[in-house]
Amino acid sequence: MTQDQEKIIQQTADHLREKFTGEGTGHDWWHMKRVWDNAKRIGQAEGADMFIVELGALLHDIADWKDHDGDLSVGPRVAGEWLTSIGIDRETIEKIKHIVENVSFKGAGVKNGMASLEGKVVQDADRLDAIGAIAVARTFTWGGSRGRLLYDPDFKAEMHESFEAYKNSTSSSLHHFYEKLFLLKDMMNTATGKKLAEDRDRFMHQFVDQFLAEWDGKR
Ligand code: NI
User: Fold this and answer.
1) How far does residue 117's CA lie from ligand 1's centre (Å)?
2) Average pLDDT over residues 186-198
3) Taking the alpha carbons of 143, 147, 153, 157 in that order, is the dihedral positive or negative?
């Protein structure tokens, strides 16, 4: 990476840190920072263009659809506006917008539209933050922010076949493990991402087993 590119990355990180510090739903600056760190590790191992990877990772949640009534066009637009404002060329902006547009999980049965290696790296980095100990914490934090129950034993997990159905789901936080988090390990794009996902996935299964055993007074 050139010195100019490094400066742009740092400028973008500073901007996001200022804008998203104290955001309380799990999509705060520290999520962006963790995804950025994961993306550096995966992208270097996979030989990706690190300028695109790092910008894409930093900007991937700049305007999440979950906070904008399910509107998927807000993220790419806001990312594009930021990159234009700091003088990034058009071709690079299009690459980043493609990543921001396709990064999110949209339901168990919905096809992944990510085409570039850099996008696949960012998607793996983001998914990795949705698997493991931090994922457990984030799931209940996010559920709490939406008034969801920790668990509802009368409810059955749903495999959402459309983004619409996934978006409007009202299942409990624990069901989110079955509807999304346990599926992510097998959805990783890169060999490096798959490897990193295994340990985290194992931990999450342990957590849910313990949770359900305690729920039934068995442990
Ligand atoms: Ni994210």
Assistant:
1) 18
2) 95
3) negative
